[in-house]
Hints:
Radius of gyration: 16 Å
GO molecular function, one term: acyltransferase activity, transferring groups other than amino-acyl groups
Strand content: 25-35%
Distance between the termini: 31 Å
Strand order of the largest sheet: 2-3-4-5-6-1-7
Number of helices: 5
Oligomer: single chain
Largest sheet: 7 strands, mixed
Number of strands: 7
Protein name: GNAT family N-acetyltransferase
Organism: Candidatus Salinicoccus stercoripullorum
Pfam families: Acetyltransf_1
InterPro entries: Acyl_CoA_acyltransferase (IPR016181), GNAT_dom (IPR000182)
Amino acid sequence: MRKTxxxxxxxxxxxxxxELPEGxxxxxxxxxxxxxxxxxxxxxxxxxxxxxxxxxxxxxxxQVSDLGKHMIFIANEKSELVGTVTAWxxxxxDRLRGRLHWFNVMPESQGNGLGVPLLSKGMNxxxxxHEDAYLKVDVNNAVLxxxxxxMGWKPLIVHSWEVRVWVQSGYHx
Length: 173
């Protein structure tokens, strides 16, 4: 799946914490949950197959011994994992920054008030080790872009063509 990605940034100051709705809980990553991660991302349309998702997980996180500090899930009342986010890091514009990565909620759980708490939890996790952060989002995912902007994320121009995208979207800082 080819996506056109744009960047947003946040200074991680004044991150408000939002609680999950009743019946849901945050669960830290522990060994063995990579299958669940792959399932969530496959169902969310990030990958074409479970195998591709698992390969990506192992490529990005296979050697990370403290992944539980960076990756969180949402469990529903049946203890099924229905969302995930990784408070990660990356180098952008020659500087190491926090990176909100793999923010996904299963389609059947979307609309249940999980996105804002999951986003705020990921941002709070990033605050522990970073002064600012970035994320990438598909230019066509207007719902996520609106969510990120509502939580204080602002455009980060990495490529000159992104200026046109933000102007066309009507974003004004």
